[in-house]
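[User] I wish I could look at a protein chain and see how it folds. I have put the entry right below:
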Amino acid sequence: MAYPDQIVGVVDGQVLWRDGKRMTIDDGLGAKSLNALLNSPDLQDIFAIEYPKGDLSPPPLDADPGRARPEAFFDRMYGNCRRGEVTENLVDVAWMPSRGKTTVKVTRINGVAAQLQAVSAKLDRLPRSFDAYLKPIAGTYACRVIAGTERLSTHGHGIAIDIALKHAHYWRWSKPDVAGRYRWKNEIPFEIVRIFEEHGFIWGGRWYHYDTMHFEYRPELLIK
């Protein structure tokens, strides 16, 4: 349902791609720690932590829905930027055009660019008081790894956007308390988060290891 242009369905415990190839859903290793979910996820692990809905609130300990990203699955859909397979599908999206002439680059695959354009149009109709959280954009496509890891960022697949650097909070910028826990911080208004989520983008502020400037196209976590 999330990726109808790419996936036909599920057969014998495998995802069936439109070209006839298959990908195993469950690696058979059972429940995993957060570290294992991040570093060696299978397709089933994408859904190991439910993505919350509704108003914003501090996430439970180690609840990072959507951070389990089987790289082979996303490479299969969007290409691997390290091999130069992503840029040919990047297109420009006009970002809040009534506020200026900024464009951002994201992939057109799976309609990501069209969905981000719809997000931009709705954000453009918000009161000017929201502009501080939306301009300038902190970045979209970049072929890079996630800070502190060797895992490819979703920015490298052309499906992510960062906003509001001056109003952003990131768990790596914070110090843990005496128990080793991080206190959730956020300044991004719910009105902005809601619009992104309506169009298939999850928000990094929903993670215990929060990244409040970050949104990425992950409709599989938002379908009812």
Notes: The mean pLDDT is 96. The CA atoms of residues 145 and 151 lie 5 Å apart. The chain has one domain: 7-221.
